[in-house]
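From the pipeline queue, job 12 of 40. The input is one protein chain; the requested action is below.

Action: predict structure.
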Amino acid sequence: MLVADNIRVTDPVVALAIERFDPEPIRKIVRQCEEAGADALDLNPGPLTKAPEKKMTFLVETVQEISDLPVFVDTANPTAMEAGLVANRKRAIINAFTPEPKKIQTILPLAKKYDVDIVGYLLYPDSHVPPDASERLAMALELSQAAQSAGIDKNRLIVDPIIVPITWQDGPFQAMEILTVIRELPNLLGYPVRTIAALSNLTSVQGPAKTKRLLEKTYLPMLAASGLTMTMLNVLRKDVMETAAMCKAISGGGIFCWESFT
């Protein structure tokens, strides 16, 4: 599943549209994402410290007025999160919770209340990134136990191992550890747990655009070959989406057809 991360508050166009409750810029991006081949849309309006319920409701309703794609309701504000789930009229996914006690108490129960899938981040409670695969897998066990303790069906959980920027001192090492986590999670948890990874995180730093695109096109097949279920990415990058389409064609288990790519 290719999840568009194009509707985010870090885009000034999106931020201004939310602030002004102006639906047209949002609709334009949604149409572009659908045309580019998105399978779902991540809606990230940020923490929403002012009028969180009104703004999240506006965002979800604006998107669902013109699109049937699933939406990831992506905010750390539990009040805004619940408003988005109340406004939802189609398929929604919570993005996301961590082992932080506050999030386990406020965000995790929303998955059960509204009977939706939920993404769990493999982060420490202080939001720091685990140093290697073994620590991430330990966090996966903790997240799974927390979800089941909250009465959430295990199949509702989607695990995000957290891709970090490649320019971190241990960035290449971390990138390879992510592949190990994706491969090992089903064995560790005892069922085919779904996974998601934000490809855009890998290149979320200053650098040459051409090299950043090449890096994404190189890492995406590695993620797919490791068994990744979903990726969040900028779907308006045509060359990266072409690579994603080929990954889907090879890993999807269907019959390959040349005509699908001409």
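Job complete. Residues 183 and 227 are 6 Å apart (CA to CA).
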